[in-house]
Amino acid sequence: MMVAAKPKDEAQGSGALRSEVILAGILALLAADRDDKLREVTSSDARRRTEVVLADAGLSPSEIGKVLNKKPNTVAKIIQRARAKDVSPSNEEPA
Fold first, then answer.
1. Among 53, 45, 75, which residue's Cα sits nearest to residue 63?
2. With contact defined as beta carbons under 8 Å apart, do 48 and 86 qualify?
3. Does residue 29 carry a pLDDT above 70?
4. Which of 51, 71, 54 minimizes the C-alpha distance to 62?
């Protein structure tokens, strides 16, 4: 009987953390810190949403939701609204 080899992370025991989990935790802390600092300094309309920053960095709404503890649909709607606000006529630069 042949036994499949366990992935490296599992072979190290249950105490080992995957690098993806560690990076997601670090990203969540940075995002929370960014939101806290921006909340103190600027109005919510003037700041760039963390969800948009993460989306522009290549994360999907599902991945952003995991980091920010929000539902993917909520994240997608926040991004959509923020981007719509950015292209409104009042925000366009003169030609």
1. 75
2. no
3. yes
4. 71
Do residues 31 and 67 touch, judged by C-beta distance below 8 A? yes
The C-alpha angle 55, 78, 40, rounded to 5 degrees, equals 90
Q: Encoding tokens for residue 23?
A: 């990076």
- pTM flag (> 0.70): no
Q: Helices in 1-95 by DSSP H: which ranges? A: 8-11, 19-41, 50-56, 61-68, 72-86
Give residue-wise pLDDT tens across range 36-70: 887 777 766 556 788 888 888 888 999 889 888 89
Using N-to-C axis directions, what is the helix angle for 72-86 and 61-68, rounded to 10°?
110
